[in-house]
Each structure stands twice: as C-alpha cells, then as structure tokens.
Amino acid sequence: MTDVVLLVFSETSDCRFCGSVKETFEHLTCCCTRLPTDLQRPTFDTTDFGPNFATLGLVEVSCDQIQYKLHNSQTSQLSVSPWSSDASDWNHVWTDGSCAYQESFWDTIGAYAVISNTGAVLSSGCVRHWVLSSYSCELWAGIAAWAHASSPLVIHSDCKAFVEQTKIMLQTKQVDKEWPHQEWWNVFLSLVLLRTSTPESVLRCEWCPAHVLEHLPVEHISPQVAKDFHTTIENIRWNRKADRVAKQVLFTSNKIFRNTEDCLAKVSAWHLWIAKVNSRVSELSKKVNTPQSHNGQCVHVENIPQTFVAIEDLTVWHNVDAFARLLPKWQWFPSHDDFSWRADFPIDTSPSKFVNLTLDDWKVGLDFLTKLSWDPNPSGKTSYIELAYDAWHKGFHFPNTNPNPKCYATVIRKICNQSKKVSNLALYPGTQKSGCSSRGKTLPAGYITANALLSSLALKSLAVVVLKGRSQKLKEWEQPF
Q: Which domain holds residue 335?
C-alpha cells in the first residue's frame, strides 16, 4: 500500500524539513534542525515536566506533589480551645477561603483565614483536599473559627452555601447526606453539640457580601453607603482583610513545588507550538496518494480532508471547519434547540451611583445581554472575553469604554455584578466565576457557568488571536478588536 500523507506525520518518508532521517513526531519536536524560522521551538527547559512532555505534550508531576495533592486536611489536627460555659457575650469573626488554579488538578491550592473584630488573625493556613474548591476552603475556615472559639460566636462569611447549610445544621442538629465533605461537617456538628445542647444559643452564621466597593478605601465609605449595599463598614473592612490573608497564604504555598503560573504559561506555549507544527505539516501534506489493493484495484478512502490552513494564514473568512480542527473544544456547531434561555430583565433599571459604570454603557450592556440566548447547563462556561468579542461583532459598542477586549470584558462583568443588586430577575443563567475557563479556552477575566449562543464571526476573531499566542493575562488584551 502506498503512503497516505495527511493530518498525521509521515512515518515512511524522510522529514520534509531536513530530509535527513525518517519523519516522526519525536524527530519534529526534539531533533529536527531545519524547522522554518517561524516554527522554532520554545527555548525553556522541558525536563521538569517529565520524559513524555516534549514528544506527547503530557505533563507529569513528582511523587511528592502527588502525595501532597492526595492528602486531606485533618480535623484531628485542629487546635480546639477550652469552652467557657459562663461566657455570655457574643464574639464576632470574619472568615474567608480562597482557591486557585482549579483548571489544573495537580496544581490546585487552597487557603483560609479567620479575623477577629479587632483585625487580629486568629487562624490561617493551607486547605488540602483531593476535590478542593473555594467551597472547601470556606467550610474549613468556618470550622477553624468555631474550634478556636471559647464563648458564643457569630461567624461572618461571604459564602452563601456555607451560611445556609450551617443554619440548617444548627436548627436540625443533623448533617444532610448530600452535602460535600461529610467528615468535616460531622466534626463541626459534633464540636457544636459537645459545647451545648442548644446550638443556636452559642453559634450564629451570617452572610456578608464580598468585594464591595473595592475601588474605594474603607475610610472613604460611609455607614449609609455600606447600608445601601446591604452590609456594614465592619463587614467590608474585615472581609477584605480575611481575603488578603488567605490569598497571601496561597501565594506562599504556590512556591512549594513549582511556580504554577510559570508552569502553566510554559505548558500553553509548548502546546501552541505543537499545534503550529501540526498545522504546518498538514498544510504541506496536500498530495494524497490513493491506497492500492494487491490486485491493482483502487481502494476507496472516505473522509480524507483535502485542504488545510496553517495557523499563520488563518483569517475569519476561512470555513469554520478550519477552526474546529485546531480548537475542537470550542462550540463551533451549537445545537440551537439547546439555547432556549433568554433574560427577562427590566431594562429601565439604573446601576448604583457608586459603581464605576456610566448609564450609557449600562444600557448598551443590558440591550446586548437581554438579546442573548443561553444554554443554562451549569457545566457550560462562557468567558467574559468571549462575550466581549460577541458584543463587538454584533454592533453593541460601549460609548464610554475603550474598544478593546479587556475593557469590554470588564464592563460586561460589572454589568452582570450590578444586575444582581438592582433586580431579583436574572440577567444571565448560572453563576459568575473568577479565573480562567479551562475547557479548551484558557481566557482571563472570569466566566459564567452556562453556554451563550455566540456568533461564529466573534468566535473566529477570538480564535485567530488565541492561536497566535495571546497570553492568558488580562493586561495582554488591551489591543483593539
């Protein structure tokens, strides 16, 4: 049978670049010295990622890091303060949990902090669990706060799930079997019941909003302004400090095995380079020799792609198939029947006068988002960068915002935030998440847990930028659309 040179690398002919040895994937990624100048390998050392990284793009981790990741924080290691049954005054603490790099299982890290009403750090540290999440860290912070207490306590947390579940636990003296982290919850309940038979007489849990008026120092916020945002000066001050302390612990723990941001940036750069090599080889593999049977009769071969587009030649005018081959996890072929959710949001509302958002931009954003169709499946992810490109290409231009992806993504995120404060009706399905979406889309500025029906032109415009190496950092997206 004669050779078929297609999307795969040729295994039976000399390297098309250097012509000196048999062409294999390993030769192209490791050895070939005659690659085109625009396909030069990344210069960083790949040995830290394991022996299979250079040839397969598979990142391996050390045994030490595996042991660390699979170890859970133990409630038996919590320091429990003696309980004073005579104390009647309520103490107040503010808790916060923080989690980072959830898009990379082995690199996910978590931390917590407990702050007193004088600003003292009562407890802080790392949180470890093999299914670690922000919720895990918030729960651990609450348990640590109660373990540290020696008298009646009010826990102020910005995690609604933790607050509501704690209230149910105190009322029923039970832990729902559906709640995650059963062992942690059971220890929490046991410690409450050891101290009193009437839990609600010694422990309360109250929700406080997070990230309120972050652009203003606490000293510039009046009690009335805080009240307008359904919170207090004390909540804002100590929630901010709990957040800072938890993130500082995260920053420190990030250095335990490797610099995660540096690692992920290198992995992304290498994967992008492999995609470019694949694209170039595919583009050069235009001649397809037809396989022949032993008796000379032609054998029919189905579904062989006849044309390929190199990444550097890709434009928004190319067919969607050319993009789907390079970014297969993107929604290039959505089923329109799934996108049945539309916002029933009052467009006559106005944003808070304290938010850095003009009324004109607010109206354009509402017009765009209320006309958007969604698939509300919570496993979906639509980044604000995607929404920025979609708004721009559909003609929704913010008059008081610089025309670049960073500024558009930021203003759309602010509008989504404000919508929760000015109306009980939802402007979008799902919830807002910070960080990067990871289903093939490592994009900054956060995302919404649902799939929006985006225009193919917007997706192609975004894909062209991503494939040409735009960084995950939001500051790198200040160039005009």
A: 325-477
User: Which residues on adjacent β-strands are paired with residue 374?
Assistant: 341, 452
For residues 421 and 350, the answer to whether their CB atoms sit within 8 Å is no
pTM, full prediction: 0.58
| Residues 342 and 472 both lie in one domain | yes
**Which secondary structure element, helix H or strand E, spans residue 412, and what is its range?**
helix 405-422
CATH code assigned at 90: 3.30.420.10
96 by DSSP, 3-state: which?
Answer: strand
d(C-alpha 26, C-alpha 49), whole Å = 16
SS3 100: strand
Buried b (16+ CB within 10 A) or exposed e, 64-103: eeeebbeeebebeebeeeeeeeeeeeebbbbbbbbbbbbb
Judging by beta carbons within 10 Å of its beta carbon (0-12, 13-18, 19+), is residue 152 exposed, middle or buried? Answer: middle
Mean pLDDT of the residues in the chain: 84
With cut-offs at 50, 70 and 90, classify the pLDDT of residue 13.
low
Final residue of a domain: which of 223, 253, 283?
253
Say whether both 97 and 227 belong to one domain.
Answer: yes
